[in-house]
Every structure is written in structure tokens, then in C-alpha cells.
Amino acid sequence: MSSTPTANATIRINGPLPGANARAILERRDATTVRGLYRSCPIVADHATGATVTDVDGNVFIDLAGGIGALNAGHCPPEITAAIHNQVDRLLHLCSIVGTYESMVQLNEKLHEIVPIRGPKKTLLCNTGVEAGENAVKIARYATGRQGIIVFEGAFHGRSLLGMTMTSKYDLFKRGFGPFASEVYRVPFPYEYREKIDGMSTEEFCELRIRDLKKAFVAQIDPTSVAAVIIEPVQGEGGFVPAPPAYLRALRELTAQHGILLASDEVQTGFGRTGKMFAIEHTPGCGTEWDVDMVIMAKSIGSGLPIAAVTGKAEVMDKPHIGGLGSTYGGNPVACAAAVATIDYLRDHQLADRATEIGDVCRDYFSRWQAKHDTIGDVRCLGAMCAIEFVKDRVTKEPNSVLPPLIVEEAFQRGLIMIRAGLYGSCIRSLVPLVITDDQLHEAMQALEAAIDAAVQRAETT
């Protein structure tokens, strides 16, 4: 990988942002769209390819948001768009409850090849990540005859009623929308940066967090009443916080001991993002010595089309009665064709390996910025799932939620599309398409460095 960018810049800004055409459309959006729908950047896209987006005024941006993780294969990959066009000309919709079409079966077969679960598997196709998560809960409850679901602090599992119930970060996602669903219990996530005591080993810290779960089995719900534990192997909205492999192995052992199902929510981490096809595979022995019971998937499975899935052990997935599961649009033939082509594209282009390369470059830049700015408390990269966490004080680790929106704003003015993250809103994250070129990546990092410098200066003078 090259260490410096070439002189051929990708970013092109023609004038003040947003431009005149964008401003006109943004006014129409404000007039017609509900106020509660957040907008990270004032970009109005016209077309996109690879890791770049061109707006309606001809400005070219490098996309570090990647559709919030839905574009691992990049914007409009020709092989995938060709598969979509081919399917559109043949069949738009039938409904998997009504009949069968080959793209649905092909996708199930592809998922069974790549999902790291041993033995026979079955799949339910859905529309969105939250729908897949809810179906995982339904299946777990039916299969075990139990009602309790355990989730984690900092988790994000969607915005439906049950999804919000399982989600943490109350003020942003849940305030004013209650009451919430019952029989959902929350325990601390193994957030090493914020919670590990100085001098404590990772193994000791993981044991401490496992004790939290054991305590919950006494103080909150008896383990014989727990149907499933659902965990993000790397928390997404929570700030790209990885669960240590030692914790995941111990969690599997404890849940198996009590007959509790374990589901890995890979909605944001799946399909090559972390350097493996699924983030759970970073834990040694996954898929060979041990496994989870279900994997929940969405986002990059369809390269931007709405499709999701739950794949799990056949004996678990087949428990619900016939007719108990289903969706009008789940497994739509066009979305299935996109997903089949996406999986082939990711494997053919070895994009999981590319994610590791991208993460190495980002980590190098982030670490150098950390040495320059005391406000950068932690940097985290697992593959190309990269985040910077900002603090007011490195000793107390008090979150700094002021800087991230300033950085996103400054980055946009420099030709980057970005979003923030974190339980406290104190992180910025990069979910850049894995097809980004070396030159584009370095150009993006240099623009981001300038944005951080400018935001830090703004914060210090206000």
C-alpha cells in the first residue's frame, strides 16, 4: 500500500457548500420530511460510484459513512447492478409466502456457505436489521419456551418497539416513545477503554463482566427463563466497541450451560467490514470448535437494497409452526439477486482482506492524531470499522460530545461524508466502502486531520 497520496485528488469542491441546487432541494426536504429524521450532512446526492458521491452541484465527496455500513462493496458496483437489472426485467415480486423463486433459494444457500455455524442451517429472509432481530427473538422464544431476552448497555438493535426496547442510548433513540416491551434485561458490555481498571488484564476484566451476567441471573431473571442473549461482537452505534474474544467465549460457555441461545447481531459488522466475513470469527475457534445459535444480518448484505436475514441452527430455526413466520417483502427477488451478487463480489475481490489493510492505515493516522490532540481519548479499528473517541480529560475520560458534530461539519466542508457514534455521542466513525483506493484513503485521512484540527481550534475559542 502506498504511504502518500498522488497528486490526482478525488475530492472536488466547486464553491460554497451546500451549493445552490442542494440548498433548494434541502428546503424541499425540510418542508416535507418529519423533523425527527436526523441528517448528518447537508449533501444532496446525484450519483455515486465506488467510495465517491457527486452532489447535484457537481461537487465530489469521499464517503466515510458508507450508508451507515450498507455499502461495503461500494456505490453501484457494476457486477451487482447488472444482477439487479437482470432480475428487474424478469420478476419484481411474488412474496415468499405465496411461492418460490430461485434468487431466494440461492441467497439462503450462499448464507449457509459463509455463516460460521456448524451443522445444518436454515434462514429466514427479512427487510431490515430490526426486523431480523425481532424474528430472532420470536424464534428463540418459541424454540426454548422461555420469554426473557438479555441485551447490553450501549447496544443498538433498531427503532421498532422491540428494537428500541433492546437498544441502549435512551435520550436519542427512546425518549418519548415508551412504554416499551417486557421481558428484556440489560447488562454491562465489556467496554475496555471506559471500564477496565488500570493494571487489570483483559481476561480479568472479561471475568468481571461475566460476573455481571451471573449476578443478573440472580437479581433480574432466573436463567431458566432466558430464551436468548443477543450481542453485537462490535457495538455499532455504541461507538465501535469490540467485545474481547475472551468474553465471547465465556459468554458462549455460560449460555450453553443454562440452555440459553446466543445470537450475534452482525447488522453493521458483517460482510467483510472487520476483516472477516463476520466479526464473531475474530474469536478463535468460531465455526469449528464452537458457534453461536443465530446470526442476524442486514445492511451490506444487499449493497444498498433493503434485505436482511437470520441464519441459525436448523433445529432452532425450524421450531416455530408453519405460518408463524413471514413477511410480504422479506426476501424480495430483486433484493435477493443483489445479495447473491454482493456475496460473490465480496469474496471474488477479497474485500475482507482489504478491510484489514484499510484499518491499518486508519489506525496509523488516528494514533498520530491522538499524540497531537489530548482530546482524543481512544482509537479503535477492527478491520475497516474505525472510530475515534473524544474526551474532555484523558484521566477522567469524561466524554466530549461537543467535538464530533463540529468535526463532521468541518469534514463536509473539506469533501468528506461522515457520521458520529457512541453512547455519549463522543465518537466519529469511518465505514468507508472497502473498494476505496489507496490514494483516496490517504486523501480522506488528510482531509479528516484538517477537519479535526479546525474543530479543536473552534472548540477552544468558544
From TrEMBL:
Is-annotated flag, keyword Transferase? yes
Does the record bear Oxidoreductase in its keywords? no
Question: What are the entry keywords?
Answer: Aminotransferase, Pyridoxal phosphate, Transferase
Any Pfam family the entry gives: Aminotran_3
List GO molecular-function terms, semicolon-separated.
Answer: transaminase activity
**What InterPro entries does UniProt report for this protein, alphabetically?**
Aminotrans_3, Class-III_PLP-dep_AT, PyrdxlP-dep_Trfase, PyrdxlP-dep_Trfase_major, PyrdxlP-dep_Trfase_small
Co-factor requirement: pyridoxal 5'-phosphate
Family, per the entry?
Belongs to the class-III pyridoxal-phosphate-dependent aminotransferase family.
Name of the protein: 5-aminovalerate aminotransferase DavT
Q: Lineage, please?
A: Bacteria, Pseudomonadati, Planctomycetota, Planctomycetia, Pirellulales
